[in-house]
Structures are given as structure tokens and as C-alpha cells.
Specification:
The complex is a heterodimer of chains A (334) and B (336). Chain A has 334 residues and is an all-alpha fold. Chain A has helices spanning 53-68, 73-85, 90-103, 107-120, 125-138, 144-154, 159-172, 178-188, 193-205, 212-228, 233-242, 252-263, 269-285, 290-308, 313-327. In chain A, helix 2 runs antiparallel to helix 3 (90-103). The longest helix of chain A has 19 residues, at 290-308. The longest helix of chain B is centred in the first third of the chain and has 14 residues, at 44-57. The chains are: A mainly alpha (334), B mainly alpha (336).
Chain lengths: 334, 336
């Protein structure tokens, strides 16, 4: 609604500007020198595809410029139209890059277009790959980390965004601050598996995953999150990952924490699985009373099969058979 | 427990609607004014592979126009040896695998330029053992490793072509702390990538190098209370993961670690009663991609004791008897 409306004599033009009429390429005088190339479905078209006239027109001209090997600024604009019409067409994006390369186009402008397209098609491989190429050419990460953060704001598990982030961090050495970023995402959604994966990425590449201090603090971090969501797969997997080169049963604080959970009647298949893993380790190293350990393992696995995680009954039975086969004297398998 | 899942509708489909699926695939190929069909041109040849294989699993391949399809596929082979998805598009390793799969299904492999194709695939391998998807862009993905290895295997040329050790090395580098595999080293574990990694290792005879118990557990954890399978923790189930996860478990001989009955229930519920075809989850639109993987999943599960559908091969996702007829060696026991 225009300002005050009445009395000022201004013409009301409505909410939006009238859109400029779209002119087909075949009607643009500046393109009159180009002969459009129609779609050729080959001698054996599996189906005759009906395109919209606009789509057909843009792609007739795209085929023409590829045929002519034209790499001009008008060709660049054409590839933009073609990409917008079908962003998954990797041929268009590849050709656009070759034009950008030849013309030494404004990469910052290109990044702006890329940003627009990422938000419109956040799961499109080609768009993300194109963006990576632009940044690679720019040799400067700029505000890319916060851009990716804003994409993750909309979808915190966007696989492409996370991959792009990992590439960026590796390429430009942007490790500083990433752990804090990851922690903030985990705070927001403790079940975000992508964030947990990123945590491992940072710890294993940037920190010293073998340092006792790091391991201890990461174990504590994981347990804190586990206490909040004991049935959340991600921190359990992460915990296992952090401790993969360690002896679980020797970790007294870990065992104390798990015992506390058991005593507090926490019901979690992941907790129970972890307990079995520790028992198996002890059996392997000949620690503790074998029969007692086997009994506890059996109780846990029976509970999992029958009550706690019945959908995976066959897996839990396998674990029981395996543990008995390896360590039991009796032929008490199943 | 898991907070992200679907609830199967109470009136969910309980039987396999084979006739409707056959009609669905048939009509998909003859649809003309189909916006989505236009927009998916960049994967046309893979789309044809999904349709062809779905029909083959339903023992209805004669309903398709063999000449037209084979002609189209052959027309998609470029001078460089690789296949493009459709005229007007650049070639890619994914399209190349689809093309070879289609040609084998129609017993027309001898019509393509095999040597050129092999040379192209060899040229895609990088120093670190990974594969790019094509010769123009530099995108690396464990999917491309699988496509390269599977294509070479189907062409019976795995020996003396690519560097097997480095290819395997790259797969291992892409494995994660949870036992799964991602797109590239460091990337989050994802069921589709796990399938690609395991398929690759199976074909290269290197399955013994992974911890099948750990990975098998990660895979069977994909099963949600609804019975469906997801691609990674805390994501919704999707019928295509009935393939990626299931085939992965089959490859490491742990298919029984998921609840078969519950998964069958989920897959059947993803059928569209009106149009035929399967969708990702109950109530969504069906498409050939999910139709193939719904059928393949049921086949792998031995639905109806194998009477409804042909037996599918878990590595190639093709009718097993097709592979046998073509003389492609299929290890019967991938992992003990």
C-alpha cells in the first residue's frame, strides 16, 4: 500500500513491481546471429519429451553456444538461465565454469548467485560443487563458515553443507573455533549425528586424539550428553570412537559412570551394549570371574532380546552365541 | 528411543501390488507432459536402469521396448568411452554403470565399445585411489569408486586395469569411528555410501578387511520402530534404504540382523494403491527409483518365499539369473 494513500496524488502501483515481460531468446535481437539447436533425442527416443516453451528456448540456445564453443558474457547469462531452469544439469554448470575461467568473471558476483541457488536447492550436488570451485578460485574463505552455518540453521543435517565445511576447514586451515561451533550445535540438538561426526573430525584432525587429557575431556563430554539422552545413538558411537584404542575396562571413571546409570535404572540398549563390550574385553584379557561375567552378559543380552530392543533380537542372539562360543565351557549356546 | 520415525497408517497396504507396479513402470516411460521427467533428464539413463531392473525383477521385461532402449543406450556412449545420461549431457561414471547394467539385462553388451569404456574408467582413478565422476569436474565420491569397480566387474575386466590396492585404501580412509563409510574421508557415515564401500570391497575380494560385526550393528541400528530403515541416525526411514542397508547386510552375511517382518510391513505400506509404484514413505508420491529399491528389498528378504519376485543380486542390484546367464561370476558367500 503506498504511504498514506489518499490525498498525495501518487499512483498506487500495488505490492510488487510489474515483472518485466520475459523475452524468449529467439526473439532477442542481440541473439539473432545464433541458430538455436533443437533437442535431439537420438535415433531411438525412448520417449518424446514435451518441454515448456521457455525451457525449450533456453536449452536450444544453450546447445547452440556449446556447439559454437562460445564463451562470452551473453553466454554466461544464458547458462545462468539454463541452470536456474534445471539446476541438476551438471553439463550447464561445467560449461559455466569454463566461461568464468575464460572471461575471468567476477567471482564475488558468482558467489552471490551461488548463495541464492544454495538456499533454493540446498541438496543439489552440482550447486555445491560449483560453489567449491568458486571458492577454490578465490583462494579465500571469506565468510564461508558463517554462510555454511546459516545453511545448517535451516537444516542442521544437510550432508552437502557439512562436507563443504570440512573441505573449507581443511583447505584454509580454519580449525580454530570449530569445536565451539560443533558444541553449540549439539547444545541445540543433542541428537544431531552430523554434528557429532564433525566433532570427531575436529578432535581427530586438530587435537591430539591420543592425549589423555583430550580423551578424558571428550569422554566426560559424551557422558554428560548421554545422561541427558541415554537412548541417543550418536554420543554412544562417539564415545566408542574416542576410546577405540583404549582399554575400556581399565577406565574406572567410565565404568563408574555406567554403573551409576544402571543403578539409576536407565533403560538404554546402547548402555547395555556397552556393558557387554566391556565384559567381552575382560573375558578376552582373562580379568575377573569368567562364569560371573558370562552370567551378567547373558542377563543383559536376554533382556535386550526379550524386552529392551526386540526388533534386533537376532543381533543380540548372535552376540550371546559368540560370547558363549568363545568363552563358555558348557555347550550352553541358546 | 528414536524420536524421528513415521507411523504406518492403519489401512496400510499389506500385499504386493505386482500388477499395479508393472503398469506404473510401463506408463512412466510413455508419459510425455511430465515435468519431473523433463527435470530428471540429467539422470535419464539411470532412470531407465531403475525401470528395466524393476520390470526384470517382476519377470515382465518383455513389456518394454528392447530395441528402443538398447538403441538409446548405445547412442549415449561417447567417443571417450563413457556414457551420458541423455543426448545433450556430459558423460559420467554413474551413467556408465547404468548403461552397462541395461545392456547386460537386454543381452546387448557386445554392441558397445567395451575397450573405450574401460580406458575411460581407468583414467578416472586418482593417485590416492579414489575416482572422479567424470574427466571434467574433480568431484570425488565413494559412489564413483563403486560405479567404476562394478562396471569393470560386469565387463569382466577388474584385473590389469585399475589400481586395486589404492582403490581399497581410499575406501578404508573413508571409514569412520562408528564403523560406517562416508562420501569422502571425514564425511558422516551414510547407508548409501556403506553400500558402495561394501560392494567395492566384495568385488575386489577385500571384505575381510572390515569389522563386519561393528558395521553390521550400525546397519541394523538403521531399523526404526515402524520397521523402516533410515540412512543415518535420527533421520526418517526411506524405502531406498531398504536396499542400501539390506544389500549391505546381505553382503556381509548379516541380513537376519534386521526384523524381516517389520521391514516387509514398512515396504508394502510404501506402495501407492492407485497408481502403483513405491514412494519413500507411506503417503508420498511414487517414482521408479523407490519402486526398484522397494521391489529389490522385498526380493532380498525372500518375500513370499521368492515366488513373487526374481532373486536380486545384492552387489549389482540386478536379477541374479541375468548375471549368471551373462557369465558374470557371483561369489555365493561374500563374507563368512
Amino acid at each position: 500500500m503506498s504511504g498514506s494513500g489518499s490525498g498525495d496524488g501518487e499512483e498506487f502501483v500495488g505490492w510488487e513491481e510489474k515483472p518485466k515481460p520475459y523475452i524468449f531468446y529467439k526473439d532477442r535481437p542481440e541473439w539473432s546471429d545464433v541458430q538455436p539447436v533443437p533437442q535431439n533425442d537420438g535415433p531411438n527416443p525412448v520417449v518424446c519429451i514435451a518441454y515448456t516453451p521457455k525451457f525449450q528456448d533456453v536449452y536450444d540456445y544453450f546447445r547452440a553456444i556449446v556447439h559454437r564453443n562460445e564463451r562470452s558474457s551473453r553466454a554466461l547469462k544464458l547458462t545462468e538461465d539454463a541452470a536456474i531452469l534445471n539446476p541438476a544439469n551438471y553439463t550447464v554448470w561445467a560449461y559455466r565454469r569454463s566461461i568464468i575461467n575464460d572471461l575471468k568473471s567476477d567471482l564475488d558476483e558468482e558467489l552471490k548467485l551461488s548463495t541464492k541457488m544454495v538456499f533454493e536447492h540446498p541438496k543439489n550436488y552440482q550447486i555445491w560443487f560449483h560453489r567449491m570451485a568458486i571458492i577454490d578460485w578465490l583462494k579465500d574463505p571469506g565468510d564461508e563458515l558463517s554462510f555454511i552455518a546459516s545453511v545448517l540453521e535451516l537444516d542442521s543435517k544437510n550432508y552437502h553443507a557439512w562436507q563443504h565445511r570440512q573441505w573449507l576447514i581443511r583447505k584454509f586451515n580454519l580449525w580454530e573455533g570449530e569445536l565451539e561451533f560443533v558444541s553449540s550445535l549439539i547444545d541445540r540438538d543433542i541428537r544431531n549425528n552430523s554434528a557429532w561426526n564433525q566433532r570427531y573430525f575436529v578432535i581427530s584432525n586438530f587435537k591430539d586424539i591420543n592425549s589423555t587429557d583430550i580423551v578424558e575431556s571428550e569422554v566426560e563430554y559424551s557422558l554428560n550428553k548421554i545422561r541427558l539422552t541415554p537412548n541417543n545413538e550418536s554420543p554412544w558411537n562417539y564415545l566408542r570412537g574416542i576410546l577405540q584404542s583404549q582399554c575400556l575396562y581399565k577406565n574406572t571413571s567410565l565404568r563408574a559412570a555406567l554403573d551409576t546409570m544402571v543403578n539409576n535404572n536407565i533403560c538404554s540398549p546402547f548402555l547395555e551394549e556397552f556393558r557387554v563390550d566391556i565384559i567381552e574385553e575382560q573375558l578376552e584379557d582373562g580379568i575377573g570371574n569368567k562364569d560371573e561375567l558370562l552370567d551378567v552378559a547373558k542377563d543383559i543380552l536376554d533382556n535386550l532380546s526379550n524386552t529392551l530392543d526386540t526388533i534386533r533380537v537376532n543381533y543380540w542372539n548372535y552376540r550371546l552365541k559368540k560370547i558363549n562360543r568363545q568363552y563358555s565351557n558348557a555347550a550352553d549356546v541358546e | 528411543m528414536n524420536t524421528v520415525d513415521v507411523k504406518l497408517p492403519t489401512d496400510a497396504v499389506k500385499d504386493l501390488l505386482l500388477k499395479q507396479h508393472i503398469k506404473f513402470i510401463e506408463s512412466y516411460n510413455s508419459e510425455t507432459n511430465h515435468y519431473e521427467y523433463t527435470m530428471t533428464e540429467y539422470l535419464r539413463i539411470s532412470g531407465i536402469y531403475w525401470c528395466v531392473t524393476a520390470m526384470d525383477l517382476m519377470d515382465s521385461i518383455d513389456k518394454l521396448d528392447r530395441e528402443a532402449i538398447v538403441g538409446f543406450v548405445l547412442d549415449c556412449q561417447m567417443e571417450c568411452g563413457a556414457f551420458r545420461p541423455c543426448p545433450g549431457h556430459d558423460p559420467h561414471i554413474i551413467c556408465t554403470l547404468s548403461a552397462v547394467q541395461i545392456l547386460i539385462t537386454f543381452d546387448a553388451l557386445n554392441k558397445m565399445n567395451i575397450d573405450a569404456c574401460i580406458n575411460y574408467i581407468i583414467s578416472l582413478q586418482c593417485k590416492d585411489g579414489s575416482f572422479t565422476g567424470d574427466s571434467v569436474n574433480g568431484e570425488i565420491d565413494t559412489r564413483f569408486t563403486f560405479c567404476a569397480v562394478a562396471t569393470l566387474s560386469l565387463l569382466n575386466r577388474l584385473n590389469d586395469t585399475i589400481n586395486v590396492d589404492s582403490a581399497v585404501e581410499f575406501i578404508h580412509l573413508s571409514s569412520n569411528f562408528d564403523g560406517g563409510f562416508g562420501v569422502r574421508p571425514g564425511s558422516e557415515s551414510h547407508s548409501g555410501q556403506v553400500y558402495c564401500a561394501l560392494g567395492t570391497l566384495a568385488l575386489l575380494g577385500r571384505l575381510s578387511e572390515i569389522d563386519a560385526d561393528q558395521l553390521g550393528w550400525w546397519l541394523c541400528e538403521r531399523q526404526l520402530p515402524s520397521g523402516g530403515l533410515n540412512g543415518r541416525p535420527q533421520k526418517l526411514p526411506d524405502v531406498c534404504y531398504s536396499w542400501w542397508v539390506l544389500a549391505s547386510l546381505a553382503i556381509i552375511n548379516r541380513l537376519h540382523w534386521i526384523s524381516k517382518n517389520k521391514l516387509v510391513e514398512y515396504i508394502l505400506a510404501c506402495q501407492d494403491m492407485e497408481t502403483g509404484g513405491f514412494s519413500d514413505r507411506p503417503g508420498d508420491w511414487p517414482d521408479p527409483f523407490h519402486t526398484l529399491f522397494g521391489l529389490a528389498g522385498l526380493s532380498l528378504l525372500g518375500y513370499n518365499d521368492g515366488r513373487s519376485l526374481a532373486k536380486v543380486n545384492p552387489v549389482y542390484c540386478m536379477k541374479e539369473s541375468r548375471l549368471e546367464d551373462s557369465g558374470i561370476s557371483i561369489p555365493t558367500n561374500y563374507y563368512s
